Amino acid sequence: MSSEARLDFSVDHPQSYSSPWEGEQRVLTYAGRCESCGIRTYGFSDGRNDPRGPLGEHASHNMEASDHFMAGPQVVACFSCMNDQQRYHSLLAVGMRRWKKTDR
Ligand SMILES: [Zn+2]
């Protein structure tokens, strides 16, 4: 049996993942459902959420208010929606309703 941990994309609790290539223990946490397509998204504590890796389509890529000179909670998003122009704009519209302008 492989020492590589299996990731379960149906649970909310943190999971540890040991990469056979990087030889390190990583912690995966549930980030919520993508607010565009509804897929369950997950992120590693080190922030390296490459969809070509073990996360695949579940890779978290949340939209940050500060990137748009606003303040407020993140919009939960998956990697593929953040890279799709139409879905990106629908996520941005969610953020604009939720966020407040900063003083800058
Ligand atoms: Zn999505």
Question: Care to describe what's here?
Answer:
The model has no long low-confidence stretch (mean pLDDT 91). The radius of gyration is 15 Å and the shape is elongated. Helix content is 17%, strand content 21%. It is an alpha+beta fold. It has helices at 79-82, 85-98; strands at 15-18, 25-33, 40-44, 70-71, 100-101. A hairpin with a 6-residue loop joins strand 1 and strand 2 (25-33). The strands form two sheets. It has a three-stranded antiparallel beta sheet with strand order 1-2-3, with no helix packed on it. The protein has one domain. The protein has two helices and five strands. The site of zinc ion has 8 residues, from helix 1.
- Helix segment tally: 2
Assembly state (oligomeric): single chain
The side-by-side strand order for the widest beta sheet comes to 1-2-3
Mean pLDDT: 91
* Principal-axes shape call: elongated
- The total strand number stands at 5
- Report the structural category: alpha+beta
Give the helix proportion (percent range). Answer: 10-25%
What are the bound molecules?
zinc ion
Radius of gyration: 15 Å
